[in-house]
Amino acid sequence: MISMRIRSLSQRAGKSRKSDGAGYSTVVATSLCLVILTSLFFYFAHSLTYEIFIHHEINYCMTKYLSDYYKSDVRIYDIVVVNQTRIYAYLNNTGNVDIRARDFDKMDLILVYTSTTGEFVVTYLRYDESGLGSNVWYVVESYNDLVSPINPPNGVWNPNESMKVEIKLEKPLNATLSYALVVCTPYGASSILTRGG
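The structure assignment produced for this chain is given below.
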């Protein structure tokens, strides 16, 4: 009886060893799959990160190149008050970009001043090639304009060219107090010049 009992226990132990063997191979296979999947994950994550980095570098280089190439700049080098409602401003295209005459309406000219009645005035001046009306500006003449001369709406304001613009105001300017003119190109470059006071 004892021998049967031992035989029975040894058979049960043998069965459990067989199931341990099958469990061990499952653990090894699962571990191997996890190692492979983890390796693939890190490989693709690294590849994706590298691609994003390369894309960012290319984008940065192209943006820098284009911003240098299309560098727009303008300078107001003088303002002359003709009378209380007429002003001449002298502008120079100091950037690398041509500004077409038909795009002058996309330029912003803003005059900040005190009127003869003592009112503080901020006036947005709209472009009008005919120069009719008030709170407008238009091109009177251009200088050093050798290539595609400005003849609105035709022509181009090329780099290093200057132009004289006339500004007509609705409210009279008190030139004894300070006033400022702001010019902004269609590409976002700006200049400010303060006079008076």
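Interim note for the steering committee: Helices lie at 2-69. The radius of gyration is 39 Å.
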